[in-house]
Amino acid sequence: MSSFTAYYGLTCNPFDKQSLKERDHFESSDFKEMTSRLNYLKDVRGIGVFTARPGMGKTFVLRCFAAGLNPNLYHMAYICLSTVGVTDFYKEFCGILGVSQKGSKPALFKAIQEQIYYLYKEKRQPLILAIDEAQELSTSILNDLKMIMNFRYDSLNCFTLILVGESQLNIKLSLPIHEAIRQRITVHYDFKGLTADEIPAYVRHKIHVAGGADSIIDDAAMASVHSLSQGNPRVIDTLMTDALTIGAQMDKKVIDAEVIMAAANNRQLG
After folding, report:
1. Based on the domain organization, do 139 and 219 belong to the same domain?
2. Which of 167, 190, 213 is at the close of a domain?
3. pLDDT tens by residue, 8-23
4. Contacts from 25-28 at CB under 8 Å and sequence distance 24+?
5. In what side-by-side order are the strands of the sheet with 75-80?
6. pLDDT tens figures, 21-54
7. How far apart are CA 212 and CA 225, in angstroms?
8. Do residue 96 and residue 140 come from a single domain?
């Protein structure tokens, strides 16, 4: 437990992502927009692209969506992509589908397509494949994903592909070589960040989840958080963790703008 939790009457550090459970999420505009599109996508099947700057919470929204799925109706799979070659990607894909990872690339491709079709047609649990850090996908893998999605002379959508990544994914997909996969994109959302109204609500929501009171932080401090964070949840979480630590050290029962600026200087955010 962090040193400041008892000082501020908190059950945990409310700004530590490891303490955050899916049920305790804050429903920002970004959260609602991505969730709405994911729910649509799971039923129509196709490709969804979700992009944001680092720290905006896109992976957490995906986690909440996955947690809410009925496992009897959908087969959810998740790959967090590091830079890999096509064959390694195929092997990882086979691994999450529970099929053999041995054989040539054509054999792996066939095994993947057959299992996807089996999940869709026989088990009636269509695959939802989420690829995180998708800005790292190579041209070869993107081209192969397009081919994997081609069933029955391209007349059937058997599974949902969710590409989640940083903003440069949009640039990559805009290249002429990716026109075919771009045409298949069903939904596309780029995160906006927390608004001026959402930032204080976000901070107070997290404090409440950890059993704290609104009085822990004053309005001037909240205005400072807004100006320093640019609506980025990860920056807010880091800033508030430092502010609570420094506030407890300074024996301040209320986090004020002075404490926020000290936290910002600690992170060189000012």
Report:
1. no
2. 190
3. 999 999 999 888 788 8
4. 25/60, 25/61, 25/64, 26/201, 26/202, 26/205, 26/206, 28/57, 28/194, 28/195, 28/198, 28/202, 28/233
5. 75-80, 127-132, 160-165, 47-51, 185-190
6. 888 999 999 999 999 999 999 999 989 999 999 9
7. 18
8. yes
The phi and psi torsions of 139 (rounded to 5 degrees) equal -60, -40
Phi and psi at 71, nearest 5°, equal -65, -15
The Cα 89–Cα 77 span in angstroms is 14
Here the CATH number for the domain that contains residue 210 is 1.10.8.60
Structural domain containing residue 154:
29-190
Q: Which residue has the tokens 């970004």?
A: 30
pTM of the entire structure? 0.91
Residue 42, both tokens? 């799971």
Cα–Cα distance between 61 and 39 in angstroms, integer?
12
Name which of 87, 92, 33 is nearest 65 in CA terms. 33
- The last residue of one of the domains, among 190, 211, 236, is 190
Q: What is the CATH number of the domain that holds 88?
A: 3.40.50.300
Question: Are residue 48 and residue 72 in the same domain, yes or no?
Answer: yes
Quote the tokens at residue 84. 């890999």
